[in-house]
Specification:
The protein is an alpha+beta fold. The chain has 18 helices and 44 strands. It binds alpha-D-glucopyranose (2 copies). One alpha-D-glucopyranose (GLC) is lined by residues 486-487, 502, 640, 649-650.
Length: 812
C-alpha cells in the first residue's frame, strides 16, 4: 500500500511543499529574523510578536485549543453562497487545490475554489517591524466574479500571560482607532505603553470590524463568523472586550484578471513626548511612514527579493555537494535554517512552547550560537555579551533571561552547574569562526549591574573556576539543581506536586550529588580554554587549568567508570546513578557523549567500550534513547526525570539533542560507519517517510524528542523546531563528519565518513576567504593523508588562513 504523504521537498526553491492541509500536526514556519517575529502554520494559524513572545505579543493565540491551531491571520472569501479560505482553515470548505510552501523566512499559501485562486505570501521584510501578507486574487473562470473579502486578526493585549488570565481587567481595557484602511490597536497606550500595532491594507475598504463578538457572533466560531456568513461587515468599534481587525473589500474580477492586496501587520513605538497627535489620538506618523514603504506590489516584491538575497548569502557560506540529495538538502538548507530559528527564539515560542514560560536559556543560547555563528557573527557576538551579563561574580548564572529586558529571570534563578561551561563553548566557537579576539576584552557586567564590569575573558575564567570550586567527594562536579538534563534533580526531594522540580532544592546542604556529564563537559571546554590561554600567551593560566583538567580526567577514570560505560552521576547520598548496579536506568547517554568527546580513558579502551555500549543498550530503530531501561516509577531522590512515563522526554525518550554527542565521540574515535549510522537515523530527510505518519511533526526540521522504545507509542515526535538538536546536528555534520572545522589560524580538515562515502566538495566562506575543498575519501573512515592548498602541499591538517579564493584538495 502506498503510504499517505502530506508534502515533499523542493530543493531548487528551498521550500517544503505541503499538499494536504490536514497534516498530522500543524507544520509551521517562522517569519522574521530580528525584532519582529511570527509563527505561521500551514493553514495560516499562529501569531506575531515584537522581540519577546511574552511581553510584546501582538496577536492572540490559544494554545492547546479545540480544534487544534485555531486563530491566525485569516482571509475569508465569499463567492456567492460559498465561503472559503486559501489555507483551508478555519472554514474548512473543501478546496479544488491547496498548497503551502514553507521557505526561508517566508510562507506562501495558495488555495483555489470555483475558478478563483487566492495566494498569500507571508514574510517580515528585513529591518522592518511588520508582517507583510500579499494576497493575490485571480479569476481563472470564464465569468466575471464578484467576491466579498474579509481579513481577520485578533489582537493580544500585549502581555501574553495576563492576556490569558486577567479577564476582570482585560475585558475593559481594549481600545482601537480606525483611519481609512488602517485599524490601530492601542490598548494601554493611554497609560504606560509607548507602542501600538496596526493592520492595514493598500486599498479602499467598504467596511470593517474591530469588535470580536460583533464580527463573529457570540455563538459562532472562526469557522463561521456572522458578518462573513451574511456578507455584511458591522463597522464595529471595539471598547473593551476583545478587539480585532477585519477589513471588508468588495472585489470584482473579470475572467483572467488578477489583483494584489498588500496587508500589513505593523508595530510602532513612540517617544514619551510624541505619543499623541491630539488628546486621546495616537501619533500615527511612524505608521504612515512604514505603510508608505510597502504600499505597492512593486515595493513589496522588492522587499521580498531583499529577504531572498539575504538567504542566498547566508546559505552560500557553507555549501556541500555530495551528490546525495538527502544529505545536501539538510546541510545546505534546512539544518542551517533551523539553526537561525533556534538562535532567534531559544526555547521561547513554538507550537510546544507557549512563549510565556521561558526566555533565552544560558546554556541553550550558547549552544544555539554554535549553529549560527558562521551566518551572522556580529549577532552571535552581541549574544555572547548579553548572556555573560547575566552571570554572577562567583561564575554561577541565571538559567534564563528575557530577550526584551536582557535581565536574568528571577522565577527560575540559577544553580544549574553546567551553565557556566557553556559560555566557553560559545565564545571559543565565535573566536574560531571570526578570528576576533577583541571580544575577550569587552567589559561585561555581573547581573547587569552597571559598575561591576570585568572583561569577558574574566567571565570565562570564573566560569571554569565555578566548576573547580564546586567539587564533590569524588572530586567530580557537584550537579546543583541539575546539569544539561534539567530533569535530573538530585537535590530536590519533592513530594509536593505544587513545587517546581527546576527551582526547588529542598536539601543541598551536605549534598554529594555529582555529575559525570559536567565532568566531561568540563574536560572538553577546559581543553578549549587551555588552548585559548596559550594562544593569548597566558601560560600560567593555561598550566593552572591544564592541571584541573588532568585532575578531572583522573577523577572520572577512578570513580566515574562502571566497567562498560561511564556512570551518570552520584546521588545526594553518594550512591551511583547509571550503573549496572541500579535496577533501572543502568546507562545514560549524556555522560557517554561528553566523556567520549573528552576522550577520557581512550588509551585504556574506555571510549570504545562506552561507544559500543551506546549501540548495545541505547540504540533503537529511531535513534539512541536517553537512558535504559526507562524508569518505571517515581524516584524521590532523582526528581523530574522519573516523573515521565516510560519512553517520553528525559525518561528514555530519544532526546535528539544528545545523540550528536555520541556521534562526535564516534568520529573522534575514527568510527565513521557507526557515526553515520547514528546520524542518518535522526536526519529528517533520511526518515522523511516516518515523519508523515509516525513522527507527525515537521519533516524538514529536527524535533527535540522522539518517543523511545519503551514508550506507548514509540517513534512519535514532539517539541519540534526549538531544540539544541539543530546546532548539534550542524556542528556534527559540518565539522566532524564532513570535517571542515574552523580554528584560530585557519581551517582544520579532518573528516570521519562511512566507508561508502564518495568524493565531495565543500565551498566554505571563512572570514575574508573562500575555500573550495574537495575531499577524496578513498574508502577510508578517517585520516587525512595529504592536503594541497592552491596546488602546494600543506603540513598537517590545518590550512592556514589567508584572504581570497583558494582551492584545496584532500586525500584520505
Ligand atoms: C530542553 C532544555 C535544555 C535541556 C534539555 C534537557 O531541551 O531546553 O536546556 O538541556 O531540555 O533537559
Ligand atoms: C521540563 C522539560 C525539560 C525542560 C525543562 C525546563 O522539565 O521536560 O525538557 O528542559 O522543563 O523548562
Amino acid at each position: 500500500m502506498e503510504q499517505k504523504r502530506y508534502g515533499h521537498f523542493d530543493d531548487q526553491h528551498r521550500e517544503y511543499v505541503i499538499t494536504d492541509p490536514q497534516t498530522p500536526w500543524p507544520w509551521i514556519n517562522y517569519l522574521g529574523n530580528e525584532d519582529f517575529f511570527s509563527l505561521i502554520s500551514n493553514t495560516a494559524g499562529g501569531y506575531s510578536f515584537y522581540k519577546d513572545a511574552k511581553f510584546r505579543r501582538i496577536t492572540r493565540y490559544r494554545y492547546n485549543n479545540v480544534p487544534m491551531d485555531n486563530g491566525g491571520r485569516y482571509f475569508y472569501i465569499k463567492d456567492g453562497e460559498t465561503v472559503w479560505n486559501p489555507g483551508w482553515k478555519p472554514c474548512k470548505t473543501p478546496l479544488d487545490f491547496y498548497e503551502c510552501r514553507h521557505g526561508m523566512s517566508y510562507t506562501r499559501i495558495t488555495g483555489k475554489k470555483n475558478g478563483v485562486e487566492a495566494s498569500v505570501l507571508f514574510f517580515v521584510p528585513l529591518k522592518k517591524w511588520c508582517e507583510v501578507q500579499k494576497l493575490t486574487l485571480k479569476n481563472e473562470s470564464s465569468e466575471t466574479k464578484s467576491l466579498k473579502l474579509f481579513s481577520f486578526e485578533e489582537w493580544c493585549l500585549w502581555n501574553a500571560a495576563t492576556d490569558m488570565e486577567n479577564f476582570q481587567r482585560n475585558f475593559s481595557t481594549g481600545e482601537v482607532e480606525i483611519e481609512g484602511s488602517t485599524i490601530y490597536h492601542k490598548t494601554e497606550y493611554r497609560e504606560r505603553r509607548n507602542h501600538y500595532a496596526f493592520y492595514h491594507v493598500n486599498a479602499p475598504i467598504q467596511g470593517f470590524d474591530t469588535d470580536r463578538e460583533t464580527f463573529v457572533g457570540l455563538y459562532n466560531a472562526f469557522a463561521d463568523p456572522q458578518a462573513v456568513m451574511e456578507g455584511k461587515p458591522r463597522n464595529s468599534h471595539a471598547h473593551g472586550w476583545s478587539p480585532i481587525a477585519s477589513h471588508y473589500i468588495e472585489v470584482t474580477l473579470k475572467p483572467g484578471e488578477s489583483k494584489d492586496f498588500v496587508f500589513l501587520l505593523g508595530y510602532i513605538e513612540n517617544e514619551q513626548d510624541e505619543k499623541f497627535e491630539a488628546p486621546q489620538v495616537i501619533n500615527k506618523k511612524k505608521a504612515h511612514a512604514l505603510i508608505a514603504e510597502l504600499d505597492t506590489t512593486e515595493k513589496v516584491d522588492k522587499a521580498f527579493a531583499e529577504l531572498c538575497a539575504l538567504w542566498d548569502n547566508l546559505l552560500n557560506i557553507y555549501k556541500v555537494k555530495t551528490g546525495n540529495d538527502k544529505l545536501d538538502r539538510m546541510v545546505n538548507i534546512w539544518n542551517q535554517y533551523q539553526c537561525m530559528v533556534t538562535f532567534n527564539f531559544s526555547r521561547s515560542a513554538s507550537f510546544f512552547e507557549s512563549g510565556v514560560g521561558r526566555g533565552m536559556g544560558f546554556r541553550d543560547s550558547n549552544q544555539d550560537l554554535v549553529g549560527f555563528v558562521h551566518q551572522i557573527p556580529p549577532r552571535a557576538r552581541q549574544r555572547i555579551i548579553d548572556i555573560a551579563s547575566t552571570q554572577f561574580p562567583d561564575g554561577g548564572c541565571y538559567h534564563q533571561y528575557q530577550p526584551l529586558t536582557k535581565r536574568g529571570n528571577n522565577d527560575i534563578g540559577g544553580g544549574f552547574n553546567d551553565d557556566p561551561c557553556w559560555l566557553i563553548f560559545g565564545t571559543v566557537a565565535y573566536i574560531k569562526e571570526t578570528g576576533d579576539f577583541s571580544i575577550l576584552d569587552e567589559m561585561v557586567p555581573f547581573d547587569n549591574q552597571p559598575g561591576t564590569e570585568v572583561t569577558l575573558f574574566e567571565h570565562l575564567k570564573i566560569s571554569m573556576n565555578h566548576v573547580i570550586e564546586n567539587l564533590g567527594p569524588h572530586l567530580l562536579p557537584l550537579i546543583g539543581r541539575a546539569d544539561w538534563n534539567d530533569c535530573l534533580n538530585l537535590n530536590c526531594f519533592s513530594w509536593d506536586p505544587n513545587e517546581s522540580f527546576q527551582t526547588t532544592e529542598n536539601v543541598s546542604e551536605g549534598t554529594k550529588a555529582e555529575s559525570l556529564m559536567i565532568a566531561g563537559l568540563f574536560v572538553v571546554t577546559g581543553k578549549d580554554y587551555v588552548a585559548l590561554c596559550k594562544k593569548l600567551g597566558k601560560n600560567d593560566e593555561a598550566a593552572r587549568m591544564q592541571q584541573a583538567v588532568d585532575a578531572m580526567i583522573a577523577a572520572v577514570k577512578k570513580d566515574g567508570w562502571d566497567g562498560e560505560w561511564y556512570l551518570r552521576a552520584y546521588d545526594f547520598y553518594g550512591r551511583k546513578i547509571g550503573s549496572n548496579e541500579n535496577d533501572e536506568a543502568k546507562i545514560f547517554i549524556e555522560s557517554q557523549g561528553w566523556c567520549t568527546m573528552a576522550e577520557i580513558g581512550a588509551e585504556d579502551g574506555m571510549v570504545a567500550k562506552s561507544l559500543d555500549s551506546c549501540k548495545k543498550y541505547l540504540e533503537c530503530e529511531h535513534g539512541m534513547v536517553l537512558n535504559n531501561p526507562a524508569f518505571s516509577k517515581y524516584i524521590y531522590e532523582y526528581g523530574e526525570i522519573s516523573s515521565y512515563p516510560e519512553g517520553y522526554k528525559e525518561n528514555a525518550g530519544i532526546f535528539c539533542h544528545n545523540n550528536p554527542w555520541v556521534i562526535i565521540g564516534e568520529t573522534l574515535a575514527g568510527r565513521g560507519n557507526d557515526a553515520w549510522a547514528h546520524y542518518a537515523k535522526i536526519l529528517p530527510s533520511y526518515v522523511e517517510e516516518k515523519y508523515q505518519t509516525l513522527h507527525k511533526v515537521e519533516p524538514y526540521v529536527n524535533c527535540q524528542m522522539v518517543a523511545g522504545k519503551d514508550a506507548f507509542k514509540p517513534g512519535e515526535g514532539k517539541n519540534s523546531w526549538l531544540t539544541g538538536t539543530a546546532a548539534w546536528m550542524w556542528y556534527t555534520v559540518s565539522e566532524f563528519i564532513l570535517g571542515i572545522k574552523p580554528d584560530y589560524d585557519g581551517i582544520r580538515i579532518d573528516p570521519c565518513l562511512p566507508e561508502t562515502a564518495n568524493d565531495y566538495t565543500v565551498n566554505r566562506k571563512f572570514r575574508d576567504a573562500e575555500y573550495e575543498i574537495t575531499i577524496h575519501p578513498n574508502g577510508a573512515q578517517k585520516g587525512v593523508k595529504s592536503i594541497t592548498l592552491d596546488g602546494k602541499p600543506v603540513e598537517g591538517t590545518v590550512i592556514p588562513y589567508s584572504a581570497g579564493k583558494h582551492v584545496v584538495e584532500v586525500t584520505m
